[in-house]
Design brief:
Layout (H helix, E strand, L loop, with lengths): L7 E14 L2 E14 L3 E5 L6 H8 L8 E10 L2 E2 L5 H7 L4 E4 L3 H4 L6 H13 L4 H14 L5 H4 L9 H13 L5 E5 L7 H18 L2 E6 L2 H7 L2 E6 L2 E7 H6 L4 H8 L49 E2 L5 E2 L2 H8 L1
Parallel strand pairs: 3-8, 3-9, 6-7, 7-8
Antiparallel strand pairs: 1-2, 1-4, 4-5, 9-10, 10-12, 11-12
Helix pairs in contact: 4-5, 4-7, 5-7, 7-8
Amino acid sequence: MDLMTKKRILSVEDLKTYFFTRAGVIKAVDGVSFTVDEGESLGIAGESGCGKSITCLSLVRLVPQPAGRIVSGKILFEGQDILTKKEEEMRQWRGKVIAMILQDPLTSLNPCFTIGNQVSEPFKLEKGNDQRKNIKQQAIDVLRSVKIPIPERRMNDYPFQFSGGMRQRVLAAIAIARNPRLLIADEPTTSLDVTIQDQFLRLLKDMQKQTNMGLVMITHDMGIVAETCDRVAIMYAGRIVESGTVQRVFLNPAHPYTEALMEALPKMESKSKTLFQIKGEPPNLLQLPAGCSFWPRCHKVIDICRIEYPPLFPVTNGGEASCWLLQKNKDK
C-alpha cells in the first residue's frame, strides 16, 4: 500500500519538553515535529543525549517528574490531543492505544513477580479479575506469538531465568497484549547480541504486518534504521535536523551531522585501519552555542551558522533539513 493512502495516526507539532533544574532549564526536546501513518515505521536516530527517549516518553506522558514538563506543542493521535487528556484517561490509553518497549528488559521487568503474572497484567486491566482462566490463556497465547518456547511452562518462571533476548520478547508481549495502534521501541536491541538482535527486529516487523500498527524505533544504530524503518528523523541537541525516507537520507544526506553519522558507519570495502569519528562531543544543553548547535563540530560551518539557528529547508529528493547550506545552494 502506498504511504499516501495510509491513515495518519500520529502527528507531533512543535513539541517542547524542558527540565527545570537548579542549574537552569534543560531544553531536552525543543520544537520537534513529525508524523507516523498506520503500518509505517519511523526511526529516530542520533547520538546519546540528543532527546530521542524524552521525545517518546512525552508521547505517553511519562516525562520524569517534577523537573520534567511538556511546556508546549501538540501530540495528535488520530485527531485527539494527548496533552489535553486527564491522567485517568492516559492510563486507559497506555498499552491499549500507544504501547512502549523500554530500553533495558532486566530493569523493566519486576524480579519479584513471575513472567505469567506480569504478562497477564494488561489483560486484567482490559477484562478485570473475573475471568482468570481466560486471562491465563491469553497470556500464554501472546507469549507464543513472540516465539517464547513452551509458554505454558515459562509462565511460572522469573525474569532472571530468561536470557536477554527472551526478556526482550516478554516486554514485546506485554506491549502488544492489548493490540495498540502505535508501538514505541526505545533502543530495544541495546543489550542483545547481533544474532538475537536480528531475530527481535524481524519479530517486530512481523507483528507490525499482522496488526498494521505504526512503529517508532528509537536507536543510535543506523544499521537498524536501514533494516527496519521507512522514514528516519535525525535528532541533535533536542531538535530534528533532518528527516526523509531512509533511502534518500542514506544515499543523499543533506545535513553535515547526518553525513558524519553515515561516514562513521564501518565499511567492509574500506582498507583504512582507523574508523571515522565525529570530532568533539554533543553540546551541554544548559550551555548551547549561539546559532546552529552543531557548528562547533561541523567542517562546513559558515558565518551565519554561528549567529542564527537555521529553519527547515526542503531537500530536493524529499524530506527537509535544518542547515544554512541548503539556502546557500538554493540561492545559486
